Amino acid sequence: MNTPYVNSTRQGSLQIVEFYHPQSNSLPRTLLTQLAKAITEAGEDPEVKLILLRSAGEKVFCAGASFDELAGITTAAEGLRFFSGFAEVINAIRTSPLLVIARIQGKCVGGGVGLAAAADYAMATDSAQIKLSELAVGIGPFVVGPAVERKIGVAAFSQLAIDATNWRSAEWAHQRGLFAERFEDEAGLDEGINRLVAQLLQSSAAALKEIKKICWDGTEHWTQLLQHRASISGRLVLTEESKKAIERFIKK
Q: What CATH fold (topology level) applies to the domain 5-201?
């Protein structure tokens, strides 16, 4: 399996949005666009009641930005366009009228942490370590920051953003609210997801939508905020310091 993809399939009233990239489920701009589109379209389908966001593979949920694509950015406009992709996905989840459940089966890095934080309810395995590595490559978790901070608070977000090379355990993430539930392995994770999905699909669709609105109250300005944050990352990724750091990561 070497071809990147975003697949969106419906099972009854559940829309399953799955993404994959052979480089540890990293996300180039094309996949980010497809992911945002799939989430938006699911929310517009009157037959869909709930969205399950997941990735393929076992060890990594999402490694964040595509380093190959980061290395190819040569202008601030290109940088803005790339980082706007993460903004679009987070805003697609935020503005969807449907709850988004995230299946976190492995490690989350950078933008991957942002996806987990943006989900309305993230369920993870004990192997789902997290890290915001952006500062280590000369930028920062600016785009995903609002989603992460909203979920775990300023203090915990600051720890992740500043100590950019240190992994935090799934237990750490669970204790701080990033992961709503934690399971020993994928079998337990899928059992837990099936239980929750079955319960929610039996619930009132109107009530679920009202819960979604309440949970995201006060984030109406995020469309502009995340674009501004994307412009910061897009500018910083052009610095010589950032380019050298990205080159080192690619050569590893």
A: 2-enoyl-CoA Hydratase; Chain A, domain 1 (3.90.226)
Strand order from edge to edge, sheet including 100-104? 5-11, 14-20, 50-55, 100-104, 121-125, 181-183
Tokens of 233: 């990352």
Reported pTM? 0.95
Q: What is the 3-state secondary structure (H, E, C) of 47-86?
A: CCCEEEEEECCCCEEECCECHHHHHCCCCHHHHHHHHHHH
Determine the distance from the C-alpha atom of residue 205 to the mean position of all C-alpha atoms in its chain, rounded to a whole number.
24
- From first to last of its 252 residues, the chain has per-residue pLDDT tens of 789 999 999 999 999 999 999 999 999 999 999 999 999 999 999 999 999 999 999 999 999 998 889 889 999 999 999 999 999 999 999 999 999 999 999 999 999 999 999 999 999 999 999 999 999 999 999 999 999 999 999 999 999 999 999 999 999 999 999 999 999 999 999 999 999 999 999 999 999 999 999 999 999 999 999 999 999 999 999 999 998 888 888 877
